[in-house]
Please model this.
Amino acid sequence: MKSILIATGILLMPLGLCVPALALEPAHLEQLRRTGSCVGCDLSSAQLSDALLSNTDLREANLSGANLAGADLRRANLQGANLSGASLIYANLSGADLSGANLIVTGLVGANLMGANLTGAGLSLAKLPGANLIGTNLSSADLRSADLSNANLNSADLSGANLRSADLENAILENAKLSSAILPDGTLLP
Model:
């Protein structure tokens, strides 16, 4: 039986179907705590709920699968960071720079993203119900199949954004810029 399991694991490895090992680097977590900066660090699966991380520099950091629920990330620099599958439920990301960040399948329920920069960010399948996106720059963002129900997108810039199959039920879009955006039904706006 043991040899069958080993053989199965060897056969599945090239397909990328094996469970990856956690890659959190404890030294990187300590660097973040000590300096407030951790550019390019591996903090995947880190437990940082309710952490005070305002003004931190986390450019290009790997925070995939991290728990940042309730964290204070105001004005944090998360340019190009990987936050896929992370929990940012009720996190405060107001004024944060998330341009080019990977937020695929990220939980942002009730998060405050007011005035944040999400230019070119990948947010497909992201969960943003009830999120505060007032004045947020989402230009050229990928929001395919994202849940934006009950989100406040008042004065948000969605120009060039892909909203195909996004849930915008009860979302507030007053004064939002939608030029060249792809709507949930696939319509391309001029």
